Amino acid sequence: MKAKCTAYSALFVALLFLPAAGLAQLTPRQSLDLSLAAVGIENDPASSAPDSSLYADGTRAINEGRWNDAVAIFAKVAGQRQAHADGALYWKAYAENKQGLSKSALSTCVELSRTYPKSRWIDECKALKIEIRAKSGRPVEPEAESNENLKLLALNSLMQKDEPRALGEIQQIMQDDRSEELKEKILFILSQSRSPQARQMLAQIAQGKVNSIPPSPSLQARAATLLGGDGLPGSSATRGSLTLDVVVTDKSGNPVHGLELKDFTLLDNGQPSKILSFQAFGEGAQKANPPVEVILLLDTVNEPFQQISITRQQIANFLLRNGGHLAAPVSLMVLTNQGLDIQHRPTYDGNGLAQNISHLDNQLRTINRSGGFWGASERWDLSLRALENIAATEATKPGRKLLIWTGNGWPLFDNPMIDSTNKGMEQDFDALVRLTTRLREARISVYSVSLGQPNMGTFLYKGFLKGVKKPAKMNLPNLGLKVFAVETGGRVEGPDNDMAAQINLCVQDAGAYYSLSFDPPRANGANEYHDLKVLVDNPALTARTSTGYYNQP
After folding, report:
1. Quick check: 349 and 326 in contact, CB under 8 A?
2. Is the peptide bond between 346 and the residue preceding it cis, with omega within 30 degrees of 0?
3. The listed CATH number (2.40.128, 2.60.120, 1.10.8, 3.40.50) that belongs to domain 293-511
4. Which of 171, 260, 280, 324 could serve as 351's disulfide partner, Cβ 3.0–4.6 Å?
5. What is the pTM of this model?
6. Measured between alpha carbons, how far is residue 472 from residues 172, 261, 411, 469 in Å?
């Protein structure tokens, strides 16, 4: 993404590019309200122009919700007809719309188009028009927009006002020879509706009954992920018994083997729950079949290049331990700004994997990250999409998996300026339910390993470990990497200077562990959160497993 991040383009970083989060429900204006100062005149080639100072005053007025002041300031900037005049007209229209003066806002946009017909701000005004029309009950026809981002905005608005017509548009687009990127965003718009018709269409796409041109298995998998298994053959909601993988460690953090069923107590919402089945794996017990798989993920999206180079070497150091003979099968994945790249299937050959990762050097040098708020949104999107895709893929495979994610993970967005709407919080909550359920069904424990020294943000995640019971309690940091690590029974290691040792410590969890199952109680409603605790009779031992689950009727 370019450093220029204006209204409608920012929307699709923080909205339609976020299949895992409720920012998708923000309008372009609400999205910009989150951090308008990051847009302002930062990275603007005209930042030294005579009107720059006054233009910056206008952006501050908008950040502070001073709409009257903003209109007056931007009108003055526009009247000077200097470098920021066209942008000032857009922000004037934006502020007018905030005041409820939609007709004035549209008139200002007409003035922008007439005076500056080649301005980059014209598309932003078109997005504003789509929002105004949607509020008035007269949504813009999606096919009337040639720009794909604007087409998606119009389609999203049409879904709110006339869903049957929108579903017809969606089916036509899915069957046409359009870009897969466009179709993936449309799938997300479709997934936001809870109507039976929308869910049925999403299920048909997942099952390949709505033929995409060209055929796309990845779109089918994406539809299935967004559907959360609802309506799909063989889907597994939280009905019947649940299985937990439990790692028990001593005070030094070493896995403990040799325990029996009588040593464990399972608490569901603080109440004892009967353990239906129990199996011990590892030393002195049966071997897991299939063996526990370790997934090493090199995150090149959320770390600077200098750190990535050191991380790559640390991974190689781990792989080459014991002459390259790995204790568990390891697969290697790399997250880049192009998406998730599976480098190698599970293998015990550490030497081969180390050689493979050494060849990534030239590839990693091509990675470029966007900065500021919108760059952070882009990285958040890529990371959560990768996690969801891994969970969806691994859910089709038997056995337990350890996902070891290098680096500190994606941004937490723990900022009081980020104030999502009620609808947005509902979508964030739905995303949390979907991801935690997918990870549990895939039997994935997440691990976070990182280099460096602790800083102010290192332990921020600890404030978001409490289970989220309803949308009103949802915060974006609840979707953080380290939060998932704790909630899935994994580990948060580092930061320090020996990532290889951190990875080795995480892999020890593949050795001795226990699997137990139980019947959840009957749920009183959808997405009913249950807190889980597994206790061991010996107080010197600690049990780690999933900290909770979402029960369904």
Report:
1. yes
2. no
3. 3.40.50
4. 324
5. 0.63
6. 36, 39, 21, 9
